[in-house]
Amino acid sequence: MFENFGVGTLLMIGLAIVIGLYLYRLDKKEKSDSLVALCEPYKRLSTEMLSSLSDADIVRAVAANLLAKTDRRHPDVYHLFPMLSHGRMAVYSVWVICQELAVTDLPTLLTTPSGRFVEPAADGFALVGAEACAAALLAAAQTPEDEARSVALSTAIADEQPLILCAAYIREHLSEFADA
């Protein structure tokens, strides 16, 4: 079978496999390192730390805190939900959906693992006071191919600014987001 291949060809194939495996592991390590860098400062949250954060950082800190509690090789916050307070679930879900919708459309989001957060996010939108976002998300998720509903969701998010509402909710309930 290999009599037509020269030794040099076999060495080149072997070298290509080794380089491919090296690059694959390097890419996974870089992703893991960036997750660690995001999560490390917020591994433990205190009310003092949360109080000192800007509105732009406080929601990200809560999300990073939850990510820090997951397995770094397979960061999946969804399995932690039964152990979380209602507020933490709500804020994290809203954050995930807003982050995903900033880079993709709703039909695509629904096919990803983040699609599991649609119902908790709708509840989260309602909890923080973004009622139009909650209604628009549920309507758009029922018929994701309906472009008008996706546009209504984008408009609701732009109008109600749910991440700002999440920041206000966190500030009103600091003890719920601080680690014991």
Task: Record the SSE blueprint.
Blueprint: H1 7-39, H2 47-52, H3 55-68, H4 86-103, H5 106-110, H6 118-128, H7 131-142, H8 147-160, H9 162-172, H10 174-177
Helix pairs in contact: 1-3, 3-4, 3-9, 4-6, 4-9, 6-7, 7-8
Molecular structure report:
With 180 residues, the protein is mainly α. 71% of the residues lie in helices and 0% in strands. It has 10 helices and no strands. Helix 7 packs antiparallel against helix 8 (147-160). The longest helix has 33 residues, at 7-39. The protein is flat and about 70 Å long. It starts with 6 loop residues before the first helix and ends with a helix. Mean pLDDT is 84; it is low at 29-33.
Entry keywords:
180 residues, mainly alpha, 10 helices, 71% helix, flat
